[in-house]
Amino acid sequence: DSGVTQTPKHLITATGQRVTLRCSPRSGDLSVYWYQQSLDQGLQFLIQYYNGEERAKGNILERFSAQQFPDLHSELNLSSLELGDSALYFCASSVVGWGIGELFFGEGSRLTVL
Amino acid sequence: GESVGLHLPTLSVQEGDNSIINCAYSNSASDYFIWYKQESGKGPQFIIDIRSNMDKRQGQRVTVLLNKTVKHLSLQIAATQPGDSAVYFCAENYGGATNKLIFGTGTLLAVQP
Predict the structure, then answer these.
(1) Fewer CB in a 10 Å sphere around the end CB: N or C, chain A?
(2) What is the mean pLDDT of residues B98-113?
(3) How many Å apart are CA A94 and CA A100, to the nearest integer?
(4) A with B: how many residue pairs have Cβ under 8 Å apart?
(5) Which SS3 state, helix, strand or coil, does residue B66 take?
């Protein structure tokens, strides 16, 4: 158990809909990272937050947004969903904000868009 | 659990043999590298890391080698066990202001008993 909690574990929805994925980082970790994993794309970095502020951005679509709250949990919002958004979405956390250090990954949220 | 990456390169080894998993990274300015292991249906787990000012680091049964000249990273697993069967990812930190941990495509290690 990494200490990172993600909900929901599985989510099935329709195209055009909007979903929110939630992540609670390990106790004491200030950084939260979101990754998308699909079969043909591997692990794609989406975005990182550190202590409530956006720290780095990857290949995150404009239809996606994220935030980190004062209690350090984070939410990833996916809107106007398309079939291609079906993937595993991982949240990871770390103590440091500059990437030098281990990331602890949650078990992921599997999103299926029908 | 579900498999990840049906089209991944696969390394098949016999139990007890040593395994070497290779990775080519992309950014010559990357300053930190990590190997992760992902078992079916689970999130990636940290195995070992190495900073760019080193060329070798050893852990328990694992060794990471870094060759910055050719931007190559390898993970050596000694006496491979069935529990080592998983997808292995290398990741590089772009460093500086960008602060992105970028993952490679992964290699599936299949350990034959």
Answers:
(1) N
(2) 85
(3) 9
(4) 70
(5) strand
**Interior angle at CA B35, CA B17 and CA A52, nearest 5:** 160
Nearest CA in chain B to A6: B43
Say yes or no for a CB contact (<8 Å) between B4 and A37. yes
Q: Averaged over A65-85, what is the pLDDT?
A: 97
Nearest chain B alpha carbon to A103: B46
Contacts of B91 in chain A (CB under 8 A): 43
Cβ-nearest to B99 among A4, A56, A107? A56
Nearest chain B residue (CA) to A49? B99
B49 contacts A107? CB cut-off 8 A: no
Amino acid letter, residue B100:
K
Cβ distance A43 to B6 less than 8 Å, yes or no, reads: no
Residues of chain A contacting B101 with CB distance shorter than 8 Å: 33, 45, 99, 103
Q: Which string of DSSP letters, residue by residue, matches A50-95? A: ETTEEEEE-S--TTEEEEE-TTS-EEEEE-S--GGG-EEEEEEEES
pLDDT tens-digit readout, B1-58: 333 334 688 999 999 999 999 999 988 888 889 999 999 889 999 999 999 999 999 9
Residue B113: asked if its preceding bond is cis (omega within 30°), the reply is no
Q: How many helices (H) and strands (E) does chain B have?
A: 0, 10
